[in-house]
Amino acid sequence: MISYKNDALKQVPSSAQDGAEWARTLDELNSTLNAAGTLLRRLDSELVLPPDRSAEMQTELETVNTEMALVKKDRDLLASQLSDAVVQTARSMNLYVATYQLHGTLDPEEVLDAIAEIVGDLIGAKSFMILLRDQETDGWKVVLQEDLPTHTMELLSGSQYRGGDPVIDATLADSRLRIEAHGNESAIAAVPLRMEHSIVGVLAVFRILAHKVDGLNEDRELLDMLSDHAGSALLAAEVFTSTRRRLKTLDQLVGLLPGN
Amino acid sequence: MTISGRLDDVKVGEVLQFIQLGERSGTLVLQTEGAEAKIEFHRGASARHGAAVLYGSGIFSLPVGW
Looking at CA atoms only, how far is residue B9 from chain A in angstroms? Predict the structure, then answer.
């Protein structure tokens, strides 16, 4: 509802002519005001306030927030899975490279070099040795060693392993791979080098790089691969070399026969 | 001509047989870590030899043809 009041309109006109004009003007003004009042009332009646949706919007906001949290959780999970996949891919690549290196040559020295590279570069061992069965003595001889701790000299007699390291001895006895959290002075890992179901050697690790906080557990696949392939690769190379040498010897002896 | 090889790969008897069958002349030298033996051959027959006992694996060498 609108009311309008203007005291100036109630002033007395100075003449009859002015009075008529004042009256006409006043009528026009009243008419205009009435029309404005009518219009305002109409607008007032037509004005419909929007319903109160604040509660609904609050609910929607909470729903969106919940979904956002789920999306964020999914994103974090995917990021974690991607990271795992990258690590797994790197491990698979390492396994492929290592296996290729092991079986890429038939020279026993090169196979030993490949094993040393895998153990040193991929596994991160600083101090290790490889024992192989000595056919002549039926004992175990050291065919490769790297930066052995002083105390391990007590385990060796020349190039022969005398025994005395509990981790190595246990693996030689039951052919099982062992990873010890705290090696003290004994080996922190003993990896059986298997040929089919029999043990032909052992890789003994005494120290690893300091940055490998999880120790050797993270390299379990590589160690398993070494266990399955290193011994057979070494034996295959030795058999190939000895067979080739024997063939050469026989060729020379055949050359002694008449007609050669 | 000299031939050589490891006694892991061939038996001494086999070497002697080849020398005999080939009627070769020369000196067969047998070596191990602890001993050495020399056997001289003339046309496949042993002409002279030094006493020695061989244990385990070793090598042999045979300069032939003199």
Answer: 5
Q: Is the ipTM of this complex over 0.95?
A: no
DSSP A174-223: H---EE-S--TTS-SEEEEEEETTEEEEEEEEEEE-TT-TTTTGGGHHHH
pTM: 0.63
User: Are B18 and A254 within 8 A, CB to CB?
Assistant: yes
DSSP assignments along B27-65, one per residue: EEEEE-SS-EEEEEEETTEEEEE------S--EEEEEB-
Answer yes or no: do A249 and B6 touch at CB < 8 A: yes
Number of structural domains chain A divides into: 1
Q: How far apart are CA A250 and CA B8, in angstroms?
A: 12
In chain B, domain spans? 2-63
B9 contacts on A by Cβ (under 8 Å): 242, 245-246, 249-250
On whether residue A139 sits in a domain, the answer given is: yes
Task: Please give the residue range of the domain that contains residue A179.
Answer: 85-247
CATH number (domain holding residue A165): 3.30.450.40
Strand, helix or coil for residue A10? helix
Question: B5-64: per-residue pLDDT in tens?
Answer: 988 888 888 998 999 999 888 888 888 877 888 888 888 887 766 544 444 456 666 665
Q: Are strands B26-31 and B36-42 parallel, antiparallel or unpaired?
A: antiparallel
Nearest CA in chain A to B55: A136
CB atoms A254 and B64 under 8 Å: no
Q: Cβ of A245 and B10 within 8 Å?
A: no
